[in-house]
Amino acid sequence: MLHSGRTSIFARGRRDAANSSSNSDYQSAVAAYNAGRFPAAAQSFKQAADQGHAESQYILSTMYDAGKGVPQDGAQAALWERTAAEQGHVYAQANLSFRCYSASDLAGAFEWCQRAADGDLAWAQYNLGLMYQKGEGVAPSEAEAAHWYRLAASQGFADAQQRLADLYYLGQGIPRSYAQAALWYRRAAEQGSARAQFQLGYLYDVGLGIEHDYAQYRYWTRMAAEQGHEDALREVNRRDYRDP
Amino acid sequence: MSSTSLMPAEIILQPNPNAADLAEKRERLAAVRAALAERESDVAQLHSQLKVFEGRYLQRVGVLYAELDEIAARITEREVDLYDSDSARRRAQEARERAQETHEAAFGADQEPEEFDPAPSLKTLFREVARRIHPDFASDEAEQKHFTLLMTRANQAYSRGDAETLQRLLDDHLEINAARAEASGSDESDGVTLLRLARQIQHAERDIAALEGELQTLLGSEIGQLYTGAEAAQQDDRDLLAELAASLRERIADAQYRLEFVERQVSALGR
Predict the structure, then answer these.
(1) Which of A57, A70, A89, B265 has the smallest CB count inside 10 Å?
(2) Is A2 on the interface with B (CB under 8 A)?
(3) H or E stretch including A47?
(4) Does A20 touch chain B (CB under 8 A)?
(5) How far is A124 from chain B (nearest CA, A)?
(6) Which of B57, B226, B237, B258 should we substitute to test contact with A (largest number of A Cβ atoms within 10 Å)?
(7) The domain A158-244: what is its CATH number?
């Protein structure tokens, strides 16, 4: 009678229900937190966490990490972070990945990063791309790196946009395309990425992937220089001497 | 008395237990059987409540999971259009399989009543059981009541193809009758009656324990936990399924937005 093929659709509902924002302990915890009553907030988050509320487990782990409302306790932080991560909480998965990475557990870092990336977290998609590119916790693959950068870039993650543009520019992992490189550098540049601004300026200067445009070249190089980008600073100094 | 007798020695040595002992055992059997009947009705009730709840869940929430997974699958497929790679294709394929599974789980309800075609051995077994415990053959009113209950259980076991339960019903009956056969010809002696009652009590207690286990399994299952949660929420005037549906609709709206975003990118690239 209890159809076995349905178990997973029931399990999803039960998990989502257990993590509902209407959990009363969670609600009072949030109210206490917003009122700056951190010890009370930690206590209520703990109650909800004990009931399996993933968001509460995650917040509790960050409070233990920061020593906010509770004495700082790395072991408790790690414990609640892992509990939430195992329940599929993507931020907890990302934090756990970072915790593994800091402890030089690259395989663990990769595995949790992968799970958070599959959960559509842009930060994790970007970092997974980095791990693929550097071969950390996984065999290096620029094609995989490009894939994950692109997913994060599509979500507007500036660093991923700039990295993806680099791969297009160099033709690494994906066929070289200056037009695509220019497009992604522009998106990252508009969000203030210095390296992307400098690169975009360069593409305008030499007319790669976009029409040569001296004004645009000057504008983006100066933007990058203002942020202290070294190549851009050198470029601007040389240009000011030649073409003030 | 044959050497294959099932009777323990101490009962043979005490052929005339006092009447109070007999009365006490009879009373105890009646009480245990009453408890058993109650447990059976509890389990049957929970089964039907879960069945109803399952239908409501699939209709109000399951279909939304199916919709969400369908959009997620389309997003990953459009991402392949946008940028083809092994990992993009793998992701798309996984998402499509998941959407398919969820769709079948949410909408496959109608296919369920399978054609009932019991194996010949099961038919034979059922007949064996039925002709022994038919209420018409009961010797008194108490037994008739009990046979009715056994018959219901046998019918349910038969319809779900549960040979194990049918076999147990048959074994129980044979065991009780073996005791009666010891007193063949004459009326059942007090010793034999006492033994029979003890076995019947034992059978009932064993069945209660089994039902207890079934109840716990049902309540511990995913749908059972969801049901318990929904009942608890109702105590606080909350509608758990409505809450789940509302949060799913939000997630569907988010996914829809992401799908449109990817589609705009695809058409911008002219692919």
Answers:
(1) B265
(2) yes
(3) helix A38-50
(4) yes
(5) 16
(6) B226
(7) 1.25.40.10
User: Which of these, B109, B9, B98, lies nearest to B59 by C-alpha position?
Assistant: B109
What is the pTM assigned to this prediction?
Answer: 0.71
Q: Which residues of chain B lie closer than 8 angstroms to A151, CB-CB? A: 79
**pLDDT per residue over B18-39, tens digit each?**
788 888 988 999 899 889 989 9
Nearest CB among B61, B223, B265 relative to A154 is that of B265
Cα–Cα distance, B198 to A97 (Å, whole number): 62
What is the domain partition of chain B in residue ranges?
A: 19-268
Measured in angstroms, the CA of A164 and the nearest CA of chain B are apart by 12
A8 contacts chain B (CB < 8 A): yes
ipTM above 0.90, yes or no: no
Within 10 A of A156 (CB to CB), how many other CB atoms are there? 13
Where do the CATH 1.25.40.10 domains begin and end in chain A?
A: 1-140, 158-244
Above 90 in pLDDT, residue B59? yes
Over residues A65-116, the pLDDT tens digits come to: 999 999 999 999 999 999 999 988 999 999 999 999 999 999 999 999 999 9
- Which residue did the predictor score with more confidence, A244 or B87? B87
The CA-based angle A92-A95-A101, given to 5 degrees, is: 140
Given pLDDT bands bounded at 50, 70 and 90, which one contains residue B133? confident
Can you name the CATH fold of A1-140?
Answer: 1.25.40
Cα–chain-centroid distance for residue A242? Answer: 41
Taking the CA of residue A174 and the nearest CA in chain B, the distance in Å comes to: 9
Contacts of A8 in chain B (CB under 8 A): 101, 105
The per-residue pLDDT for range A130-176, each reduced to its tens digit, is 999 999 999 999 999 999 999 999 889 999 999 999 999 999 999 99
